[in-house]
Amino acid sequence: MTTTRIHSAFLDSKTAGADLTGHQFKFVRFSSTGELVACGDGEVGFVLQDKPARGQPGSYATGGMVKAVAGGNIAANDPVASDASSRVIRAATGDCILGYATVAAASGELAQFHFYPSSVRAA
């Protein structure tokens, strides 16, 4: 079973700049206007915790032990990143490493990982 341990200090919220009702537990980033939008392949982002429609506030995790929808098979201790569909995947060369998986997960499952976004790129 996947557990989520998020300290309240690691949560924040911003207005959704797009319809994110289908993006719970996927990566989001800030738009040029400071609103939440879906993350792209290898981008630095945060994990959306709810399902905001455009213009509604959305809560996102900025760090800690979190879960996200897996876009592929992930092994424990794999470095993780965002794919083009905002899901968590094993980081590929050039991707920003967003943390490390704590347990294995199959594609489509909720993957648990220690999340600490950075601009460090996978080699």
Element layout with pairings:
Layout: E1 11-15, E2 27-30, E3 36-38, E4 46-48, E5 57-61, E6 64-69, E7 79-82, E8 88-90, E9 99-101, E10 110-115
Antiparallel strand pairs: 1-5, 2-3, 2-4, 4-5, 6-10, 7-8, 7-9, 9-10
Estimate nothing, just give the exact number of structural domains: 2
Order of helix and strand elements from N to C terminus: EEEEEEEEEE
| Coarse morphology | globular
The largest β sheet comes out as: 5 strands, antiparallel
Radius of gyration: 13 Å
Report strand %.
25-35%
Mean pLDDT, rounded to whole units?
A: 90
Distance between the termini: 31 Å
Number of helices: 0
Uncertain runs with pLDDT below 50, 5 residues or more?
Answer: none
Number of beta strands: 10
The proportion of residues forming helix, as a percent range, comes to under 10%
How would you classify the helix and strand content by structural class?
mainly beta
Strand order of the largest sheet: 1-5-4-2-3
Describe what you observe in this structure.
It is built from no helices and ten strands. It has two domains: 8-62, no CATH class; 65-115, no CATH class. The chain is 0% helix and 34% strand. The strands form two sheets. A five-stranded antiparallel β-sheet has the order 1-5-4-2-3, with no helix packed on it. A five-stranded antiparallel β-sheet has the order 6-10-9-7-8, with no helix packed on it. The chain is mainly β. It is globular, with a radius of gyration of 13 Å.
